[in-house]
Amino acid sequence: MSKVLITILIATVIVTGCADQTNPPSDISLEKLTSDYDPLWSPDGDYILFTSNRDGNNEIYSVRYSDGKLTRLTSNKGSDTYPSWSPYGDSIVFTSNRDRNHEIYVLEIDNLKLSRLTNTLAWDYMPMWSPDGKKISFISDRDGTEELYVMKSDGTDLSRKTKGLTAVVNGTTEPSSTLISIPKLVYSWSPDGKEILLHLYQGGNNWEIYVLDMYLGKLKRLTNNDMTDIFPSWSPDGSRITFASGRDGNWEIYIMNRDGSSPIRLTSNAAGDIFPVWPSDGSQIFFLSDRNGHREIYSIHTDKSIEKRLTFSSEEKNSLSWSYKHQKIAFHSTKNGISTIYVMDRDGSRIANLPGNDLR
Asked: What are the residues whose beta carbons fall under 8 Å from the beta carbon of 86, sequence distance 6 or more?
């Protein structure tokens, strides 16, 4: 998400393979020399924002999808991570430890004006813009535990939105999986900006899903069981929520109404299905699964009519990001600790390197 020195490279898209369900490639080699990860499409679909260590430490870059024009947005000796676009794509917000501790910064894309929004000895991270661009939310441990905070986009009017939500739950068991390490708090703004969806750590082996009313400041619990419900995501129209749950003994993908009612299990297998993401039309869910021994990308229609494996390689996939303009998915793939960003069509075809990878 970040910074001051710009390096511009021109590159072309390299097509590496086609993931067709009826005739999948035996193995697509995705290994590269350095790591690019956490891709995020811009609101207009013209750019992909990502983090990379290609220049020695974690910096923020953007690449123009049409011609591969690569721009280094940050340049410092610290680590810049967790980038997020403003709703209009004219600025980014990110976390950096360039001043020795993790703080929140905003960078204006056109003039590279950098503003530091927080200044504490704590760890401030995972910033995100509200849909109207007037507020920025983030997670901080400044009061001793990881909690959600919201401030105006200029860093003023800071308020803590969660407090003391780690009630210990006894006697819980967790589905066995080496698929993920679960963060204590994950969140996202509703499309209308009226609510924030969260999964919150309850203690022991239990996480549950809540929604925070931004006007009343009240939390409502949407799930309530002895197992874990995690990684919730809003549908494009805000009427439904998808999430991963271990309530049936292993990780599966579910959807439910905005108020938590009528949960429906979409997937059913002995593996772990996690990280669900909606496309813009809300007709299906993209998710990650280790049912073939490593993490691959799958899709399933919300009526459960069609389920399809989209990627076929031995690398671990992560960080799915959807483009409305191009109807494509960006993701990063990791092998031997090295991550590379790819883009593909929603049906898994035309998998291509992120523009600029051939110049590393």
From this structure: 92, 93, 129, 133, 153
Stretch 265-271: mean pLDDT: 93
Phi, psi of 208 (to 5 degrees): -130, 165
pTM above 0.90, yes or no: no
Q: Is residue 288 part of a domain?
A: yes
CA distance 56 to 267: 41
157 φ/ψ angles, rounded to the nearest 5 degrees: 55, 50
Number of domains in the chain: 1
Average pLDDT over residues 289-302: 93
In the sheet with 114-116, reading across from the earlier edge strand, the strands are 80-85, 91-96, 103-108, 114-116
pLDDT score recorded for residue 93: 98
CATH number of the domain residue 243 falls in:
2.120.10.30
Average pLDDT, the chain: 83
Q: Is residue 1 part of a domain?
A: no
Quick one: average pLDDT of 277-300? 94
- Residue 256 phi/psi, 5-degree rounding, is -150, 165
Is 249 inside any structural domain? Answer: yes
Provide the token pair at 98.
Answer: 């360039």
In a domain, 124, yes or no: yes
Q: Do 296 and 312 form a contact (C-beta atoms < 8 A)?
A: yes
**pLDDT-based confidence at 75, cuts 50/70/90?**
very high
Highest mean pLDDT, choosing among 47-51, 96-100, 180-184: 47-51
Question: Which domain does 257 fall in, by range?
Answer: 8-359
d(CA 278, CA 234): 8
